[in-house]
Amino acid sequence: MEKVWIRKGKPKKVFEKSDVHYFYWPIELGFGYIKIEDFKVPTFPFKVLDYEPIKALKHRDNPQIVSRFHYRVLIYFNNPMEVDGRNVVDFSFGSHSPYVISEVSCVGSNMWVDGMDAREISALQFLISLYIGIAIKKLRSEVDEIQDYRVEKDNIPDDAIFDLSKSAAVLWVGLYPTEENTPDSLWNILGQKK
Amino acid sequence: MIDSTDTTQKVFQSFVTLDSLFASINDFMRLIQDMSIPSLKGVDKITLVGQWSMHLGESPIGKISEKLILSASSPESWMKVSQVSIKEIKDIQDLTQSLLLKIPDQFRSREAEYIDRIEQKDYPFFISEVGKISTDNLQLAYDTADLLEKAMNVAKIRESDPLESRKIEDFQWSLIEAKRILIELSSCQGEYAKQKKSKLEEVVQDLQNKILACEKTKRTLRELGLEGVTKELVTEKLPNGRVRLVWRKSG
């Protein structure tokens, strides 16, 4: 797979498998606390291994990127910007939530809500809010710095393998997806979620 | 079957032996305190529970109070009954009457309060409430789970946002699972009971984690200044439990 640039959020390692780049962090950030009545309850990281997949696609010569959030939310960036011949990914929002720098006129999701639990829905709501926040420039995403990375070959744990068919929701960022601007493989998945 | 009118009268008379009464019904006092009526003192609570048995009959609280009254009828509770004057009983009855007027509202408002708090997304409150389901007091655990589950059911139906509705429904299913285990737990002992208790704690912990995830999302969005950015999101309910969300950039 062709490489992308990293804007922010440096992974510990990057692995390649089956045309997918997995950006790896050994631990996902999540320290903090919530206040319950008079008590502060600590919250701890909920994942110890964090693989954020990035897969580059081409549709009618237009580059597109797919990724994943919380394992069952497929993220589809269908109008990404290129800088120096590559797309740019930012991992600094939320807990390494991948954001591909894009021209955004539309953000949306097709989801099988009955098949999702409260955690997954909450994660999806977070991500949609985050991407809308970026689109309306409440959060900064200018490409003021880019970094390259080295790709290693290694085994990826089975449960971390990027499998488009396992998604319960598709979140798209960029343009409203139509049959014309969407690759068949993704259009079929979007159709199943319709 | 107890005669609730007669028994309630006996409970009134037993006020003079309050110390011994407290000693013999300590567990039930804890239950009453958990009923969250902070403005009432111990004496008032006993009066209140006595009256509850008359007015709530077969409801969970009615059953608790029935047990309370049975405990109150233990011999040591009646040691000094003869010293009660007619005036004292009259005073207690007057007090009870005034409290009685508040009882239906107190009971009804608990569920209404839960529904309000669900709608306000008061997640820390629910993490705390859900924790009560792990208590060794099975009756309190069941009553808490039952009240929460019923409130979730109403809130789920009232909620117009399909995503929020589904989240509440997910919480509700965990509570139903907790109730199922509690029912089984009440009729088993030994190793099997330990297994059930462990399973119950697992369900409660998982539910608390789900609620915590929702609180974390809410808090993070607030910290990022992104609360409310989804107001312009158009939500469309589709067949077969599917939903489409669309936000378009204006201008």
Plain-language structure description:
The complex is a heterodimer of chains A (194) and B (251). Chain A has an eight-stranded mixed beta sheet, sandwiched between helices. In chain A, strands 1, 9, 10 and 11 form a four-stranded mixed beta sheet that branches. In chain A, strands 4-5 form a two-stranded antiparallel ribbon. Chain A is mostly beta strands. The mean pLDDT of chain A is 84. Chain A contains two helices and 14 strands; from the N terminus they run ββββββββββββαββα. Chain B has 251 residues and is mainly alpha-helical. Helix content of chain B is 70%, strand content 5%. Chain B contains ten helices and two strands. Chain B has helices at 4-13, 18-24, 26-34, 42-56, 60-72, 86-119, 123-131, 138-158, 162-185, 190-223, and strands at residues 234-238, 242-248. In chain B, α4 crosses α5 and α4 crosses α6 (86-119). Chain B is elongated, with a radius of gyration of 23 Å. The model of chain B is unreliable at 1-5, 10-43 and 51-86 (pLDDT under 50).
